[in-house]
Every structure is written in structure tokens, then in C-alpha cells.
């Protein structure tokens, strides 16, 4: 990047000066647009939820369209024309991305929950609630839910249980689920599993010791 001195900038013809205009909006108008963006993205992601979830087709800038049932992949593939709607969509994209980074799964559920929290939060703000207090209440609720979920959680230990969990993550592909279970059995819970494109039509497991 090159920077011009103040004297040089003053001597640059105005038609050469590069300015970036910013649209600035406040209040209910922008909240409405942001929620519309949240809804558009969440609606697209929500159809992938659960064992009966449907596939989504994403247009790509190169190559053939991509067909996926992965929530975070759908979220990443959405870009809205309206910049304020897109801001709302990007906020929910961040939720999906963070969930994927932290847990590796559950991105669709996180997106649906984020939409519900955003809608309820904005409604309360319109009625005069303090946004800081709303956030504090949400965090208290999160702690309560986490405590309750921990009492419901179950350790996954056997090869069959691992295969079941992996099959769900693989969109019901039992062969992939069994392959992942075999890999976990070989490397253990602290081992490293990497996925690479193969050169054959069959899925293969290679152990490197």
C-alpha cells in the first residue's frame, strides 16, 4: 500500500480520489432488514436438520453446483444482495462456523437456535428491554442448559456406538460410519485421523504408526 503526504493528496485531481460511500441506518428499519437476512439463511440451513433433512444445492463460482446436507456448508454458501440483510446472515454464519470449530457438528441446530434468540431479543429491545441485560439472561440460560445436558449425556465407548454416531455425521452412510469406527479403534481417542481424496472408487483406511 502506498500513502500520499497531505500536500500530495491536496494536489491529486478530485476525480482520482477514491472515496467509499457508507450506508448508515438506525433503529427498527435496520433491525427488520437484519432479521430478514437471519431468516433467509436459517430457512436454507434448517431444511438439512435431522435424519429426514433434505439436501441443498449451492451455486458455485466455478464448476458444477454443490449438493450438500451439511449446515455449515450451506451457511457459508449464502451471500445476500442487500448489505443489511447480509449483515444479519453473516452473524448467523459466525454462529455456525464457531460451532463447527468447537464441536465439529450441530451447526444446523446452532443456526436454528441463533435465529430464535435473535428474533426474541430484537422483539424485547423494541419493547424497551436493555440489550446488556438480555445478553446476561441468555448466558445464564446457557449455563443452565449445559448443566442439564451434562446429566443427560452418555459416554460413547464401544465400536458400535462410535459407528452409530459417525453414521449420523456422515448423513446415514453406514460404510463411512464403520470405517471411522475402525479408525478410532486403531488410533484411540487421542489419535489423529485425517481425510484425503483417494485414487480409487473404494473408501480405504490406512494406519501410519
Automatic annotation (TrEMBL):
It comes from the Eukaryota. It is found in: Mitochondrion. Its main location: mitochondrion. GO terms for molecular function: ATP binding; ATP-dependent protein folding chaperone. GO terms for biological process: protein refolding. GO terms for cellular component: mitochondrion. Keywords: ATP-binding, Chaperone, Mitochondrion, Nucleotide-binding, Stress response, Transit peptide. It holds the Pfam family Cpn60_TCP1. Belongs to the chaperonin (HSP60) family. This is Heat shock protein. It comes from Sipha flava (yellow sugarcane aphid). The lineage of its organism: Eukaryota, Metazoa, Ecdysozoa, Arthropoda, Hexapoda.
Amino acid at each position: 500500500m502506498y500513502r500520499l503526504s497531505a500536500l500530495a493528496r491536496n494536489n491529486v485531481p478530485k476525480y482520482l480520489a477514491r472515496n467509499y460511500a457508507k450506508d448508515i441506518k438506525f433503529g427498527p428499519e435496520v433491525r427488520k432488514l437484519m432479521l430478514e437476512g437471519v431468516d433467509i439463511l436459517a430457512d436454507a440451513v434448517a431444511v438439512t436438520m435431522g435424519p429426514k433433512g433434505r439436501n441443498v444445492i449451492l451455486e458455485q463460482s466455478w464448476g458444477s453446483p454443490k449438493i450438500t446436507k451439511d449446515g455449515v456448508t450451506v451457511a457459508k454458501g449464502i451471500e445476500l444482495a442487500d448489505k443489511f440483510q447480509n449483515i444479519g446472515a453473516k452473524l448467523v454464519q459466525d454462529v455456525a462456523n464457531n460451532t463447527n470449530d468447537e464441536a465439529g457438528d450441530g451447526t444446523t441446530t446452532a443456526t436454528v437456535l441463533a435465529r430464535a434468540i435473535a428474533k426474541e431479543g430484537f422483539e424485547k429491545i423494541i419493547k424497551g428491554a436493555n440489550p446488556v441485560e438480555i445478553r446476561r439472561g441468555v448466558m445464564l440460560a446457557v449455563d443452565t442448559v449445559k448443566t442439564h445436558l451434562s446429566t443427560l449425556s452418555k459416554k460413547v465407548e464401544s465400536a458400535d456406538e462410535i459407528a452409530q454416531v459417525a453414521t449420523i455425521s456422515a448423513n446415514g452412510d453406514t460404510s463411512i460410519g464403520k470405517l471411522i469406527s475402525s479408525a478410532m479403534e486403531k488410533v484411540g481417542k487421542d489419535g489423529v485421523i485425517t481425510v484425503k481424496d483417494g485414487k480409487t472408487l473404494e473408501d480405504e483406511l490406512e494406519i501410519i504408526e
